[in-house]
Amino acid sequence: MIRLNALFHRRPEAILAVGGAVFFLLSWVIALGPALDFRAADAARPKAAADPAVEWGRALYLAEGCGYCHSQIVRPLFIDAPYGRPSEAADYAGATPPLLGTERAGPDLSDAGHRQPGIPWNLMHLFNPRSVVPQSVMPAYPWYFDIVEREKAPAGALVVTLPPPWLPAGKVALPRREALDLTAYILSLRQG
Amino acid sequence: MAGSGAAEDRASQSVVYEYLAWAVAWLLIGSFYGTLAAWKFVFPDLLPVEWHSFGRIRPIHTTSIFSGWLSLGLIGLAYLVVCRTSRRPLFSAALARIALWLLNVALLAGLLTLSLGMTRGPVEYREWLAPIAAFFAAGVILNGINIFLTLLWRRTEEIYISNWFILGAFAWAPTLYVVAYLPAFDSGMANVVIQAYFMHVVLGLWFTPLVVGITYWSLPRLLRKPIYSYALGVLAFWANLIFYPLIGAHHFIFAPLPWWLQSTAIALGIGMLIPVIATSANFLLTMRGSWRFIRHEPALWFIMAGALCYALASAQGTLQAFRTANALLHFSNNTIGHAHFTAYGFVSFLLFGAIYGQRLFTAKGPAAPHVRLQFWLSLGGLAIYVVAMTASGVLQGLSWAAERPFIESVAASAPWYLLRAIGGSLMALSHMVLAWNLRLMRPQQQLLPAAAAEPAQ
Fold first, then answer.
1. Is the CB of B256 less than 8 angstroms away from the CB of A19?
2. What is the pLDDT of residues A116-153, one digit of tens each?
């Protein structure tokens, strides 16, 4: 033991080698091993067909960092009961990356498709969350909309109609492709 | 410094100062984004532009602070500690500068890409796209080589305890980074296993050992006496290495992860108290009999506050991993409070102390009242921040447990969000004072006499 101590006190390569080896071993036990197990289990699962609008919506959800405030993990606890059935490993198979999250500055969205089913509500909420939920602290995403004269909106198009101060009188917000895809993604989240 | 070339030694000093200057630049950038993010919780429609949207600036705040301020600052001071305790200049100042540019390029590219929404998703602290992370990893590895070779050809018999921690950090970081970016684990729960491991280990096996190692040098140097116990330092080194990597899963308690993984994380979190108490007690016991120094040396205030925050915040971390506490507090603002309690109260405060504590660059340095000003702004800001986030976290948890509508937890947090923004602004203000103070510490043209009172070995 004394000799070992002398070794570490005199040889930087000993600290590097032994410290590095211990860490590598622990990394296998705690991270690489369990991760490989999950990978094998996921590989055996059938792949779900992807809807391009939902896929693109998910990419926007990642880009805007929605997952920093909205978790997608239902714990087997009564506190989480409003968000659907408890999550399972299979729910995240193929998700790159999975969006469990660590924070709920906003509500969990695992079952958002059931909780907020309306496209119009989601578009208004995306345009400015405070137009429908006054206490909300969520960012607004006006850059996913074009503000146009009510008459100029294409016939039959889905538009956000809000009174001032949200929109100038006589104008509507025409959702861009991004707003529609993001809404499609949120409505695809179901964990009933 | 007997025997070392004066020019070489001056080059080493300049490298250290360059790292510190860039670290503080990133601290200012990170503080700007952090403060903006905090005020957005008070005024959600503040600056409604894409690249200043909360979801985009949050990772810019965290990566600028972690990879910019903390990593650059710690690497710079690690260079200083390694040179001083090896009694020789750096193996290569040029290599250190190349590494600094690799790190800075990664940081800047990370800032720009995250602003544009180019991210790997909300996988905390590894949001950067892989090529950017590769630049950063290359910088860290070059620094590691430089430090190792400096230590290998040291002019002292033994390796001072600081260097154990510093060497360890540079041995562990590359492994950690490679594992974090392995494409094999990009999807499914495998990604969560790696996420839990990465986001935790990067704190405990990169920031913690570097800052502890640096403090093992800066504290005894300020007190002009050896550290209380060398053996406690060695104990903390090994205990930290054994316990820390195994507890990352406490970020995902009740997730569909193996139960043993979660329980291991919770149980070994108790084990973490061993290195935490060993280290913080070692620092506090070194102060015993030397409290008279504290009157005239504000650097010691930072170090003492840092040692206390280390003990308190780590104990908090251990407790909030317990399943009962976790069920209530997880997902709440309490986590954000804890993150600042540790990364700021512990790591940044020890870093501030080490920066102010070394009188290498100039004989004079900043005036003590200016250092004290930063201390009170930093400490006051931190205290307000942590109290606000912890209180609102508990309120959120209670609201959820009472099965109230979700929006009530948001409404209940509103006054605390304001308080948090004020605390955060004070912290940002303190960093401007630091920048001013550091400017007064830049190396002088003529070589100063080598500092006296290296820690006894």
1. no
2. 779 999 999 999 999 999 999 999 999 999 999 999 99
Query: Does B68 score more than 80 pLDDT?
Result: yes
pLDDT at residue B3, rounded to an integer: 42
C-alpha B219/C-alpha B221 separation (Å) is: 5
The Cα–Cα gap between B370 and B436 comes to 9
**Domain tally for chain B?**
1
Residue B1 to residue B9: CA distance in whole angstroms = 8
B448 within domain boundaries = no
- Which of 43-72 (A) contact B at CB < 8 A? 62-69, 71
Residue B450 domain flag: no
Helix, strand, coil share (%) of chain A residues, nearest 5: 50, 5, 40
Q: Give the separation between CA B199 and CA A100, rounded to whole angstroms.
A: 14
Return all residues near B401 (Cβ < 8 A) that are at least 6 apart.
Answer: A79, B328
How confident is the model at residue A2, as a pLDDT? 63
Q: Look at residue B203 and tell me if it is in a domain.
A: yes
Contact in structure between B164 and B213 (CB atoms under 8 Å): yes
The larger pLDDT score, comparing residue B289 to residue B449, is at: B289
Burial of A165 (0-12, 13-18, 19+ CB in 10 A): exposed
Q: Which two tokens stand for residue A6?
A: 């002398």
Encoding tokens for residue A171? 């104008």
Predicted confidence (pLDDT) at residue B358 exceeds the cutoff of 60? yes
**Mean pLDDT, residues B441-455 taken together:** 57
- The tokens describing B105, both together, are 């390029």
Note whether residue B246 is domain-resident.
Answer: yes
Q: Give CA separation, A108 vs A57, A69, A191, B54, B97, in Å.
A: 17, 9, 11, 18, 45
Tell me which of B240, B331, B398 to substitute to probe the interface with A (most A C-beta atoms closer than 10 Å): B331
What is the chain A residue with the closest CA to B155? A10
Q: Which of A42, A76, A106 sits opposite B190 (nearest CB)?
A: A42
Interface contact B156, partner A, CB < 8 A:
no
**What integer best gives the mean pLDDT of chain B?**
94
Q: Which of B162, B242, B195 is nearest to A23 (CA)?
A: B242
Q: Which residues of B touch A12 (CB under 8 A)?
A: 148, 151-152, 159, 163, 167
- CATH number (domain holding residue B401): 1.20.210.10
Looking up tokens 């296998």, which residue turns up?
A28
Flag whether pLDDT at B169 surpasses 90: yes
Residue type, A126: L
Cβ contacts of A69 on chain B, cutoff 8 Å: 54-55
- pLDDT at position A6: 81
The C-alpha atoms of residue B278 and residue A128 are separated, in whole angstroms, by 51
Dist. CA A123–CA A168, nearest whole Å: 17
Query: What are the φ and ψ backbone dihedral angles of B244, each rounded to 5 degrees?
Result: -60, -45
Helix (H, G, I), strand (E, B) or coil at A88: coil
Mean pLDDT of the region B213-237: 96
Is B410 within 8 Å of A136 when comparing Cβ atoms? yes
Question: CA of B47, closest CA in chain A: separation in Å?
Answer: 10
User: By residue range, what is the domain housing residue B400?
Assistant: 2-440
Q: Strand runs (DSSP E) across B329-432, as ranges?
A: none
Which residues lie closer than 8 Å to A52 by C-beta, 6 or more apart?
none
Query: What are the chain B neighbours of A100 within 8 Å (beta carbons)?
Result: 192, 252, 255
CB contact under 8 A, A9 and B158: yes
> Half-sphere exposure of B245 toward its Cβ, with a 13 Å CA cutoff?
27
- What does the pLDDT read at residue B2? 38
